[in-house]
Write a structure and sequence with these properties.
Rossmann fold; 7-stranded mixed β-sheet; 10 helices; 7 strands; binds S-adenosylmethionine
Length: about 280
Amino acid sequence: MSFDPNAHRDASLQSWEEAASGWTRQQGAMREFSAPVSHWMIDAIMPQPGERVLELAAGLGETGMLAAELVAPMGGVVVSDQAETMLSGARARAVALGLSNVEFQVLNAEWIDLPVASVDAVLCRWGYMLMADPQAALIETRRVLRPGGCLALAVWDAIEHNPWAQLPGAELRERGLVAPPAPGTPGPFALGSVEEVRRLLEKAGFAEIAVETIGLLRRHPGFTDLWETTLDLSRSFHDAVLSRPQGEIEEIEQAVRERFAPYEAADGSLEVPARTIVASASA
Ligand SMILES: C[S@@+](CC[C@H](N)C(=O)[O-])C[C@H]1O[C@@H](n2cnc3c(N)ncnc32)[C@H](O)[C@@H]1O
């Protein structure tokens, strides 16, 4: 079946609106796990007091809020996402941090509702690979950046470097509960190549492109935490598993537990590797 971008956009929006509660539950763990990536991105854009920063596909706005502290008091951050429920979580985080220089905007990053050259920097962590047309989104990103403004992004590296997602996905595929992603279609690992990220940035007209990878570790006190985290963060896994009868859910959980056994320490805790691509570029 050929890829229908509008059907993808509708399904993605619905799925992420539903994912916000799980992401909010995992917010603290995600913050800790992803800190090296957020800090790489913030170092890349070097936010200066008074600047205006845009975060795209922001989810709960964790990365944008790090920038908000640096551009205060005269500068500000626009935290944006397609999903209103994600932005509700982001608003709560801004209140908790006492930030008064953050605005929130529901928008699709493929057509950014902001004027030409209206921001100094753009952040987008784990967003572009999920979009129907990442190339269009990068061209839009460059349009809203002032000349010389900086973009910092992260996308997941290829799935074989990310067993935290590869192992649960393999279990569901072998059971016929999910289909393998069609090549060239959006998904968490769709831009998992340093060369592809560089090519897309060049084609969008960016200069001074730097692309590298960062290794991360997902730490869990035990398998139950890993299982609950996966259900909270992956809507496709959640829907495929929880639509099955109770007995089968327990079987799947046991099978996934066995797949992760190589990462389990004697005390039952787990450390599962992850690898992300990060890139910076100048408009
Ligand atoms: C994997 S989450 C990442 C959230 C956040 N950036 C982080 O790193 O924690 C992906 C986010 O991208 C958003 N998203 C996906 N496609 C989008 C699009 N075309 N435009 C705007 N947001 C989009 C989703 O709604 C979701 O909140």
